[in-house]
């Protein structure tokens, strides 16, 4: 309890002190420094005045009373009017006059006047601007030396007002502690100010260092992103040019040559397949570019996955029939998920396209939609019995690594589709993961929250699960 009261008392004293000298953010440092000097001198004179009266030094005491009144006035003007510079100069001039009078009427070199010269010098040097410090230094060299020479040459000028030897010693013994205390207080104030400025400078330097580090990391990310975009544009240019050239060449043949019906049919099928692949590539590219330019913001509402899958298969069944691939559906009806219809269609279309690309002739693709009512989420899976992937490929499959890939019938891609699936899934507050075994096929699964009267259920934090983290529903 005592410790608590002591801390409260010290806090109150500190608050009162700040109110007197001015808070760091409210007044300039020079202004606050002058206020500190004034308060030190006011306190010093408040001790010396009754002491001088007690020792019989009435003339000196009266002069100090006048000085005290002047200091209080100057402090008030500085604290509440901001006239600290003019006040400091007046203080310096008046202190010299007062010390000269004190030297003459207070025992000369045998009195405390010379000690107070040193205290005044320290305060002026500590709290005035550097361009005036040489002025105070010269004056503090000339005045004491001149007074000592005057006393040496004309000793009668000095008036010894001490009634006894003990009075002189009492005056000196009280003056020295006062000077030491004032010196300590001024030094402590300056040191605290220095520590505050150093701490502020270090904090500022640390902040700049952190900003530089963030800028460096951002530059690295931008450089990497630009490099990847340049690589993507290069690959896309190559992968778009080849099928377009093939389409143009086939159309020229169909236009100029008289071909047998079976050859014409085969050529048209090849043309349609190349057009589908090119269209898929362009659709993914446009979706990715739109997200890069505008930012991908989903419009969440209720969506029926079976309806989305029906729309996709109405277009993709041709590719499946061409390769003799059977598409099996295992879809639970009356399921609604909270999603963006267009984004969900892009994700499922890419998963099915990917399965068609890497499933061989006469293979099987299974599309399933299952609801987990307990966890209030829906899992959409696309499983194939195609070429499969290694564990390393599974780990990297969604990272956006751009490179040309070829399906079982030389269908081309650049790896953009699965990366786009991951980006869109994250924005739909869902999960996407892959399982695969080389030579046995792959399964891609997507988990989304169920729709329940406008409330989302399911994962609260977007996450991408790697292989074996979550079992695939089938």
UniProtKB/TrEMBL annotation:
Pfam family, one: HATPase_c
Kinase in keyword set: yes
Domain Histidine kinase: residue ranges: 235-452
Gene Ontology terms, MF aspect: phosphorelay sensor kinase activity
Chain segments annotated as coiled-coil in the UniProt record: 191-228
Annotated EC: 2.7.13.3
Listed transmembrane segments: 33-54, 60-77, 86-105, 111-127, 134-152, 172-190
Keyword Membrane listed: yes
Keywords: Coiled coil, Kinase, Membrane, Phosphoprotein, Transferase, Transmembrane, Transmembrane helix
Top enzyme class: transferase
Reaction(s) catalysed by this chain's protein: ATP + protein L-histidine = ADP + protein N-phospho-L-histidine
Protein name: histidine kinase
């Amino acid at each position: 309890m005592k410790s608590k009261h002591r801390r409260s008392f010290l806090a109150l004293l500190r608050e009162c002190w700040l109110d007197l000298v001015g808070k760091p953010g409210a007044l300039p440092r020079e202004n606050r420094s002058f206020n500190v000097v004034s308060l030190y001198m006011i306190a010093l004179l408040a001790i010396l005045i009754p002491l001088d009266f007690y020792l019989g030094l009435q003339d000196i005491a009266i002069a100090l009373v006048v000085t005290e009144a002047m200091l209080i006035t100057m402090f008030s003007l500085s604290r509440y009017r901001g006239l600290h510079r003019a006040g400091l100069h007046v203080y310096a001039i008046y202190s010299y006059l007062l010390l000269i009078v004190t030297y003459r009427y207070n025992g000369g070199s045998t009195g405390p006047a010379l000690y107070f010269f040193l205290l005044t010098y320290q305060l002026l040097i500590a709290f005035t601007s550097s361009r005036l410090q040489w002025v105070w230094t010269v004056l503090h060299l000339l005045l004491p030396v001149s007074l000592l020479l005057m006393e040496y040459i004309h000793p009668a000028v000095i008036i010894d007002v001490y009634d006894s030897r003990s009075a002189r010693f009492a005056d000196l013994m009280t003056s020295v502690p006062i000077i030491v205390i004032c010196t300590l207080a001024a030094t402590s104030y300056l040191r605290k100010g220095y520590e505050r400025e150093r701490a502020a400078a270090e904090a500022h330097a640390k902040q700049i260092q952190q900003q530089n580090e963030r800028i460096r990391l951002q530059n690295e990310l931008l450089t990497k992103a630009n490099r990847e975009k340049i690589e993507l544009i290069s690959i896309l240019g190559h992968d778009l040019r080849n099928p377009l050239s093939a389409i143009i060449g086939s159309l020229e043949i169909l236009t100029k040559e008289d071909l047998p019906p079976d050859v014409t049919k085969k050529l048209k099928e090849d043309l349609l397949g190349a057009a589908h692949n090119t269209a898929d590539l362009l659709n993914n590219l446009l979706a990715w570019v739109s997200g890069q330019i505008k930012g991908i913001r989903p419009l969440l509402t209720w969506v029926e996955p079976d309806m989305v899958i029906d729309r996709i298969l109405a277009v993709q069944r041709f590719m499946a029939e061409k390769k003799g691939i059977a598409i099996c559906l295992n879809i639970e009806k009356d399921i609604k998920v909270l999603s963006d219809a267009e984004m969900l269609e892009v994700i499922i279309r890419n998963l099915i396209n990917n399965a068609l690309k890497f499933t061989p002739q006469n293979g099987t693709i299974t599309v399933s939609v299952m609801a987990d009512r307990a966890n209030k989420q829906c899992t959409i899976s696309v499983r194939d019995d195609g070429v499969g992937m290694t564990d390393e490929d599974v780990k990297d499959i969604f990272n956006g690594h751009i490179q040309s890939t070829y399906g079982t019938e030389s269908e081309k891609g650049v790896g953009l589709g699965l990366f786009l699936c991951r980006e869109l899934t994250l924005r739909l507050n869902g999960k996407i993961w892959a399982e695969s075994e080389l030579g046995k096929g792959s399964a891609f699964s997507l988990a989304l929250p169920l729709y329940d009267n406008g409330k989302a259920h399911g994962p609260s934090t977007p996450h991408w699960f790697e292989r074996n983290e979550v079992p695939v529903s089938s």
